[in-house]
Each structure stands twice: as C-alpha cells, then as structure tokens.
Write a structure and sequence with these properties.
Shape: globular
Largest sheet: none
Strand content: under 5%
Structural class: mainly alpha
Radius of gyration: 15 Å
Length: 89
C-alpha cells in the first residue's frame, strides 16, 4: 500500500489546497501532474467528470479557483525552441 499523498506534492500557489482537497477525493495527483491542458480544457473537464463519473458539480468561486490553479501550473507545455534539444528543456 502506498502512503497517502500530501498537498505539498503539488506546486505552491493560490488554489493548491482547494485543488488537492477536491481532486484527491476521487483520484491521486498523478493524473493531474501528467496532464497539460488549456484553461478551457480544464474547465470542460470539470463538466465531463460531473457527467461521466458522478463528480459533485463544481461551480462559482471554487471552480474558478481550481481551474485557475490547474491552468497556471498544469497548462500546455511550451514547444522547444526550433533546433533546440528537447531533452534539455
């Protein structure tokens, strides 16, 4: 059995506690940490999880806080500079 994750596994920032608390109720943070979506995609994912997986609807300020946190810390990766070594970025 793996030890329980702690909030500090996610990057510091406004919304970390809310994101950790709401998301780990259903899944671990690995799925978050390996995902890199736009803000619109993170926002749409909230609706998808509600519709397809029965997640409690996330609305208002809490939704905005969590989506903002996810988009800031787990947004799309930047493409490496042309001709750059992708293993060094």
């Amino acid at each position: 059995m793996q030890p329980a994750e702690e909030e500090t596994i996610l990057p510091e920032g406004h919304g970390r506690a809310e994101t950790f608390g709401y998301c780990v109720a259903c899944h671990n943070t690995a799925i978050i940490r390996r995902s890199h979506f736009t803000r619109a995609q993170w926002d749409g994912l909230m609706d998808w999880m509600t519709e397809k997986h029965g997640m409690n609807a996330l609305d208002g300020e809490l939704r905005q806080t969590i989506v903002d946190y996810l988009a800031t810390h787990f947004g799309p990766r930047q493409a490496p500079a042309r001709g750059g070594n992708p293993f060094l970025n």
